[in-house]
Amino acid sequence: MQIMPFEEAKTYRFNPFDLTKVWPHADYPLIEVGKLTLNKNPTDFHTQIEQAAFAPDSLVRGIGLSPDKMLLGRSFSYSDAHRARLGANFAQIPVNRPKSPVHSYSKDGAMRVDNVSDPVYAPNSYGGPHADPSLTDDAGKWHADGDMVRSAYTLREDDDDWGQAGTLVRDVLDDAARDRLVSNIVGHLKGGVSEPILKRAFEYWRNVDKTLGERVEKGVREG
Questions:
Q1: How far from chain centre, in Å, is Cα 156?
Q2: Number of separate domains in the chain
Q3: What distance in Å separates the CA atoms of residue 8 and residue 13, rounded to the nearest whole number?
Q4: Contact 126, 113 (CB under 8 A)
Q5: What is the largest CA-CA distance in the chain?
Q6: How sure is the predictor about 28, in pLDDT bands with cuts at 50, 70 and 90?
Q7: Confidence band (pLDDT; 50, 70, 90) for 1?
Q8: Cα separation of 52 and 55, whole Å?
Q9: Pair (94, 194) in one structural domain
Q10: Ranges assigned E (strand) in the chain
């Protein structure tokens, strides 16, 4: 994982919540937080894969959502999608069932298997579930400097469409990887693409990297 202090995120040279960008490791080195070991395959694809329901709003204490607009949208839409796909009680399917007891207002619905004994209304005086914002960071609130609005991001110094892609081609890929990239692009463009589209494609790849664009055009023209 990588960590960017909140104050630095306000003025970083490109918007750190832009999904088309990565945080350079030179600025924010990777921090090892654990190891994920894949040691077995599912035995039943439907029950263990097709019915899996992951949602970014399933957060443990101390972790909150960033101003990433895609993440914020997914935080409320994923759970709705799971209910439509798997039913109101998708969280009781074994592949989704939490390891620790969960107290919620959930009750009834098709295919429910857990009996409800606690009151499912609030407020109540019978020991039922209730919200406790004090358990989260700053009572569940955080400052976003106006980022949580329905408008485009404000562009910053390095917020462009080509910079990081060019860095990937020139500084990250080796010669063999660059050769494979050119070969793949050329192969697709030689499949009956019209001349106007070809010109746009050549310009596109020149914007990423001038040499790459020239190699792509040469490969298509001379192939």
A1: 22
A2: 2
A3: 9
A4: no
A5: 80
A6: very high
A7: confident
A8: 10
A9: no
A10: none
Question: Which residue, of 139, 158, 177, is where some domain finishes?
Answer: 158
Side chain identity, residue 41: N
The per-residue pLDDT for range 84-129, each reduced to its tens digit, is: 999 999 999 999 998 887 777 788 888 888 888 777 777 778 877 6
Verify that 111 and 93 share a domain, yes or no. yes
Is the same domain home to 112 and 178? no
CA distance 9 to 172: 24
> Given this model, what pLDDT does residue 141 score?
55
SS3 212: helix
Say if residue 106 is in the same domain as residue 147.
Answer: yes
Same structural domain for residues 82 and 115?
yes
At 135-176, the pLDDT tens digits run: 665 544 555 566 556 666 778 888 888 999 999 999 999 999
Do 49 and 121 lie in one domain? The reply is: yes
